[in-house]
Amino acid sequence: MADIALPPSRFDIETQTLIIGSGACGMVAALAAQEAGQQVLVIEADPVPSGSTALSAGLIPAAGTKLQHDAGIVDDPRQFARDIQAKAKNENDPILVDALAKGAALAIDWLTDELGLPFSVVTDFDYPGHTHRRMHGLPTRSGAELIDALRSACEARGIDVVCGLRAETVFADSRTIAGVRAARPDGQSETIGCRKLILACNGFGGNRQMVVEYMPDIENAVWFGHGGNRGEAVIWGTALGAETRALGAYQGHGNVAHPHGILITWATMTLGGVQVNNKGQRFWDESQGYSEAARAVLAQPGAEAFAIFDDRIADVARQFEDFKQAEAVGAVQFAETPEALARTMGLPSVALKETLDGLPCDGTDEFGRRFGPERLAPPYCGVRVTGALFHTQGGLKTDGTGRVQHKDGSPFPNLFAGGGAASGVSGNGDTGYLSGNGLLAAVVLAALRGRQKWEICHEDLVSVLCRLREWCRLLGPPAAPSGAKRDAARYRTPYSWHNPF
Q: When you count CB atoms within 10 A of the terminal residue's CB, does the N or C end of the chain come out lower?
């Protein structure tokens, strides 16, 4: 249960920066905060850190990185920002877009140079909507590898990541966050005081009620995200008066192996593959992107489709750990002819052959998709797929540093959000999602807000002073202590208003 309450008179534990959630967002924020000299504590509801990151390919887009330069790729944040806005039809907050586009290269260079994460640029295929090759990933192109690397970095730097603690109550006095109450698996709870709270507890894709309310067009999709996506950040923020944005935005994926539940990289499409329905016929322009593919696939008979490509494309796809796992469990079928592949997959042989024979060579098809000069060739490959909801893209509105905004337009003094907890840069639906947007927002905002120090804004300072004046009026002038009593004299207030920095 996510709720809000007034702070207790004392906390069981106190820290400067408290982070809820230990996915990529939470751990990057922790590393950045510690580097900035802050005392950090991360709490995680799961037994081990994972989050939605562990289910992804772990790719982060960034423009102007050292790695791009070394690969001979000329790119810059301004073009990146234009690509983000073009995909979302300019529905995004331009301030946030610019902050992410500019901060991405700094974040990747920091993770590579300072933390030693072995990123490299994906250089052998293009992602829809990106004008340059700017996807950065670890060797296995796996989100699980990214999580393990970040967890190791936190351990090496002595950052406390406490698992098995689920935050349930946020303590706040007016707009200033004081801490949280977290429940342990044994049913007991403890209170944790903080000077800054970072919500990195992801989105609400696992909250059925919220999905039906905000994203009814995808409510019947397979939920492919992390089970901890319950929407606590949005619930807490709304109760505090925070502004939310783009709650109907989400990332779908229309290439999830079915019934295996394994993500099949969209490289199988961008390099010349196609999707057909159970009649062996194509039904849309696959070059649009994998997010909008989810609804396109779910609209087909049986809510399924078949990804058709060849072994040339499969060779590229094998850099992704997910694809290798799909091959290992038999999700990827191979055949020397379209007819043989159709029989293997239960498709009409004649229809599938006609579909593949009709693909343009260095031309444009009836859906408006442009094909290159290289045609599909034996051996052919096929995977039965379905559409899935991967994660939500709407959430709490933040500024360019991850600071949560109140409905009246002013910032909360010490409340930050990122990743799925914050509104991203994917427009208002599924078509605005540019590949990598999820981890872009998670990692870059985390790096920015981790370095932000706790502040009291003007309104809160006035509130504090008024309260102190009222206490003094009620208490009256204190008697002047003498001797040892003077040294021991203390005048305590219910809350400790000091800046630890």
A: N
